Amino acid sequence: MFLRAITPRDWDAILTIQAECYSQFDPEPLHVLQSKWQVSPSSCFVFELNHAVVGYCLAHPWQLHVPPALYEPILSVPVADTLYLHDIAISAKAQGQGAGTQALNHLIAQADALNLNSLSLVAVQGADHYWRKQGFIPKTIDKCLSSYTDDAIYMIYNIKQRVDA
Predict the structure, then answer these.
(1) Closest Cα to residue 63, out of 143, 124, 151?
(2) Nearest Cα to 157, choosing from 94, 54, 83?
(3) How confident is the model at residue 163 (pLDDT cuts 50, 70, 90)?
(4) Do the Cβ atoms of 102 and 52 come closer than 8 Å?
(5) Nearest Cα residue to 92 out of 20, 26, 25
(6) Taking the model in full, what pTM does it have?
(7) Which parts of 22-158 fold into alpha helices (H)?
(8) How do residues 89-132 score in pLDDT, each as one tens digit?
(9) How far, in Å, CA of 66 to CA of 63, rounded?
């Protein structure tokens, strides 16, 4: 399995994987997903296995502690201090093959290239357990996460701590 940049022909597969992986809320429309890619194509990628897209990641620079709401396109990036991991989804047929670790390493490198000291995300559908194992720490924020699931948890990964450890 390897990761590569998203191309326009990948969007049908991305929409299929999104629908497969997120059962607790309605999928985001194509134009919303593409808006993340358009503002930061270097931090958005797909996982490919046997010439087929089996997963994707949409990440973009953003402001720490104020994650963007679901279903709203990103029209511009504010002054950023984190690389926000908006969405990572791996098809069931490709899970357990190291895609998560590969993605995290790539995102850390992207954040470093953008001079950002953290990654952040909103974990849904119980994924906070996975992200805790990867070194993400839950953080209480003032922003309401009601556009996400009832179990939504904002989490931060401090890149400097990883380097210092």
Answers:
(1) 143
(2) 83
(3) very low
(4) no
(5) 20
(6) 0.92
(7) 30-39, 99-113, 128-133
(8) 999 888 788 888 899 999 999 999 999 999 999 999 889 999 99
(9) 6
